[in-house]
Structure formats: structure tokens, C-alpha cells
């Protein structure tokens, strides 16, 4: 159960640390355990129980993650993805006050006249800690993964997207579909799907003038009557009653001449008209 | 006028102090390496290109671990001090650290040797962490079956 702490990093035997770590979490936990044991040694301990060391390492990693998670939540609540010093200070105030029973300066942190270092008790404590304590460098060098050789992970398409998408798109998001011009293609309807599906805006709103000038620029011309529904459908109109508000059916005789299909002329059609209303001097509505 | 000028001067000084503190972070190498901190920060969703903030988090964690270890050391020293005090008084009873009393009675020589060598135990660690808001309970022992250690007459078989 008991294991000796290392007094000098260079003279330690390698047998204690050659436990093969298969997962990255085990590797990070092993590195954290070494760091925590170094801190305990600096405090004054000469030996430790293995279970105590692992418990303290676990608590330290969870503390680190708690600070990071709290800072991230502060950042996200401010509509940002990248954290800054204020987010981190707020997170430290939130986490440190839990175990130290409160700190000074947390409530007046957001005043415009105050600055971070003058009001934040956490930063003052950390500044004092850095000033008075000697630094303890990590015992062993950490093997860093060779990022330049891992070219298989990043496809060549992503590199192209990084420069053409613009600075408003974060780099960690996946690429747009259909190549580089994904933004334009979505609106133009060029990137159709495999099953022949297309955006409903293309089929319904083609005839409407919504300011999409790109269509004419790219050679797509509007055809007269392109937006209209091809199959003949009966028009439905509703007409509101004058006084009683009863819907009446009206024969749509005017439109029968336009139709090419042979539809029964006596078909009754509901007609809905919006009446123009006017208000009198007293503010009442007058039906025309 | 003076009230408007004073906070302006104060902010300049505090900004300088803050930038000095952040610069000193770059000189101070935390015990927890930057790669490890970056790994855990990325795991939690913390995104920041500034190395100084990563070092700030590392220093905060180091300070926390140092505080817990110091409290555990203090608890250890207090218990040893009380044990030694009880020895000099000659009284057999002690209202604290009863577990250590049993060890003291057994081998005094070994205990004197071990007093010089400070050991981090689960008892001290749990007591220190309880003050910091972390409840750690350690199993005293593990038994093979629920009826281990019970009297044969009281066993339900």
C-alpha cells in the first residue's frame, strides 16, 4: 500500500513508472499522479499511501475540470466560444468559494470602475502564491504526439475550406456540403440530393421576387409561369357574408374561360374576398 | 474632478499589476504540465489560445492540492503531537486519534522512527478534504461475504 515519494526525479527507478497505459485517460491520470506526488513532496510528506495518492489525484483532476466547465459556461452565456480572463476569474470565484468559505471581491467584480486584480481575491491569492512559492518543474518529459506526420486525419478538403469560408465560421466546425461553394449552392439549388429532392423554396418561390439576383448572374433564367403549379386545380374562394357573416359559395365563372381542362362549368366554388373597410368619424368600421 | 481621476489612475496601476502578474505566470513553471492542463480543459470544452490562462488554471489547481496536502500534514502533526503529549502525561485515554494509540502501544520504537517520516494517509486526507467540501469515505476492509466475521450462532443458513 505504501510507496515512497521521489526525492530527485533523475535518480528515480523506472520500474515504478513502466505501467503500460493503453488509453489516453490512463496516461493523463499517470501524469497527474506524478505531479500531485511532487506537490505533496514539496509540502513535506516523505511517503504516501497509494490509495490516498490516487484519491488526491482524482480530486485534483475533477477540480481542474470543474474550473474549466464553469469558465466555459460563463463564456457560452455571453455568446462566445473562446474564454477570456473575466470568464476564468468568475469561474475561479465560483469554485474557490465552495471550498474556502467565500472570498472577497466576487460581488463587485463587474463594476466599471473596478479592475480585476484590485477586486478579485482569487487573483490576489494566486499572485501571492506565485510570488512566495518556488516553482517545481515536472519530473519527466512528456512525449508529445507528432502532429505534422498525421496528415491522414485531415482531409485536403478541410484545408481549402479554412481559407474560403471566412473568419466568421469557426474552424472546428465540419465543412459545408457540396464543396467550396456550399453557401451559394444551397440558395441556387444546384446541389441536389441523390433522390432528386430539392429545397422547397426552389419549387414554390421561384416565381416570387425575393431579391435573389444571383440566379440571373449564373445563367439561370426565369421562365414565365415557372412558379405556377402545372396541374390544374380548382380555385377555392371564400366570401364572408355582409351582415350575418355567413360564408357563401360563388360560381367562379370568370376563370372558367382560362382553363384548358374540361371541368364542369357548374362547379360551385367557395370565394373569399377581403373587403375594404373604412372607419367613420366615430371609429366604427364601415363595410363598403 | 478628483473622483473621476482617481479611478482612472487606479485602473492604470491595476492593469499594469495584472499584466505583470500574467507575465510572471510565464516565468513560473507550474508543477502540472501545460499539456496535461490543455487535455483536461479540452475535455471540458474550455477554448482559449492564450497560454497564460492555461497556466493560471494550472497554478490554481496546484494551489488547491498544496492546501489540501498542507491541511493533511497539519492534521498528521497534531495527532502525533497529541500522542506524544499523552505519553508524557502517562494517561492511557485519548479522546482523539484512537487508531494511532493502538499502534503506539504495540511498537514504540517503530513509531518513533515513523514519526520523523511523514506519511499521507487516507484518514488525514479525508479530514483535510472534508474542510474543502469533498467527502471521501474509505473502506476499512473488504470482506469475502456478508456473513464474514459474524458469530456462527447468528448466521442465517
UniProtKB/TrEMBL annotation, chain A:
Residues 148-157 have a biased composition (Polar residues). GO terms for cellular component: transcription factor TFIID complex. Residues 25-100 form the Bromodomain associated domain. It comes from the Eukaryota. It comes from Carya illinoinensis (Pecan). InterPro entries: BTP, TAF8. Its main location: nucleus. Residues 11-21 have a biased composition (Low complexity). The lineage of its organism: Eukaryota, Viridiplantae, Streptophyta, Embryophyta, Tracheophyta. Residues 1-21, 141-164 are annotated as: Disordered. It holds the Pfam family Bromo_TP. It is found in: Nucleus. Residues 1-10 have a biased composition (Basic and acidic residues). Keywords: Nucleus, Transcription, Transcription regulation. This is Bromodomain associated domain-containing protein.
Amino acid at each position: 500500500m505504501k510507496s515512497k515519494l521521489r526525492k530527485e526525479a533523475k535518480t528515480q527507478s523506472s520500474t515504478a513508472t513502466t505501467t503500460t497505459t493503453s488509453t489516453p485517460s490512463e496516461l493523463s491520470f499517470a501524469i497527474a499522479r506524478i505531479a500531485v506526488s511532487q506537490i505533496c513532496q514539496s509540502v513535506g510528506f516523505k511517503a504516501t499511501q497509494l490509495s490516498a495518492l490516487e484519491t488526491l489525484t482524482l480530486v485534483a483532476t475533477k477540480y481542474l475540470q470543474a474550473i474549466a466547465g464553469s469558465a466555459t459556461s460563463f463564456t457560452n452565456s455571453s455568446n462566445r466560444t473562446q474564454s477570456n480572463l473575466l470568464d476564468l476569474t468568475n469561474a475561479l470565484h465560483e469554485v474557490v468559494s465552495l471550498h474556502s468559505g467565500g472570498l472577497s471581491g466576487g460581488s463587485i467584480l463587474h463594476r466599471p470602475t473596478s479592475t480585476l486584480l484590485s477586486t478579485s481575491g482569487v487573483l490576489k491569492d494566486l499572485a501571492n502564491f506565485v510570488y512566495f512559492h518556488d516553482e517545481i518543474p515536472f519530473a519527466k518529459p512528456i512525449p508529445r504526439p507528432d502532429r505534422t506526420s498525421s496528415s491522414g486525419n485531415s482531409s485536403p478538403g478541410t484545408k481549402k475550406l479554412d481559407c474560403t469560408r471566412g473568419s466568421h465560421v469557426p474552424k472546428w466546425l465540419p465543412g459545408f456540403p457540396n464543396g467550396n461553394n456550399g453557401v451559394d449552392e444551397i440558395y441556387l439549388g444546384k446541389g441536389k440530393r441523390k433522390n432528386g429532392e430539392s429545397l422547397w423554396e426552389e419549387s414554390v418561390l421561384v416565381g416570387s421576387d425575393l431579391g435573389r439576383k444571383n440566379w440571373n448572374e449564373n445563367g439561370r433564367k426565369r421562365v414565365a409561369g415557372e412558379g405556377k403549379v402545372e396541374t390544374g386545380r380548382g380555385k377555392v374562394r371564400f366570401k364572408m357574408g355582409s351582415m350575418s357573416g355567413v360564408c357563401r359559395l360563388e360560381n367562379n365563372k370568370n376563370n372558367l374561360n382560362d382553363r384548358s381542362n374540361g371541368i364542369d362549368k357548374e362547379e360551385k366554388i367557395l370565394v373569399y374576398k377581403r373587403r375594404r373597410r373604412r372607419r367613420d368619424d366615430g371609429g366604427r368600421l364601415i363595410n363598403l | 474632478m478628483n473622483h473621476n481621476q482617481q479611478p482612472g489612475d487606479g485602473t492604470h496601476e491595476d492593469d499594469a499589476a495584472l499584466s505583470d502578474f500574467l507575465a510572471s505566470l510565464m516565468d513560473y513553471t507550474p508543477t502540472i504540465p501545460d499539456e496535461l492542463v490543455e487535455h483536461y480543459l479540452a475535455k471540458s470544452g474550455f477554448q482559449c489560445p492564450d497560454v497564460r490562462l492555461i497556466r493560471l488554471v494550472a497554478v490554481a489547481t496546484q494551489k488547491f492540492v498544496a492546501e489540501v496536502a498542507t491541511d493533511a500534514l497539519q492534521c498528521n502533526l497534531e495527532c502525533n503531537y497529541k500522542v506524544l503529549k499523552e505519553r508524557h502525561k502517562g494517561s492511557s485515554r485519548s479522546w482523539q486519534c484512537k487508531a494511532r494509540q493502538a499502534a503506539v502501544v504495540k511498537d514504540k520504537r517503530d513509531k518513533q522512527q515513523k514519526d520523523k517520516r511523514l506519511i499521507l494517509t487516507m484518514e488525514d486526507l479525508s479530514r483535510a478534504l472534508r474542510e474543502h467540501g469533498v467527502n471521501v469515505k474509505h473502506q476499512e476492509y473488504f470482506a469475502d461475504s456478508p456473513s464474514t466475521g459474524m458469530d456462527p450462532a447468528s448466521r442465517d443458513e
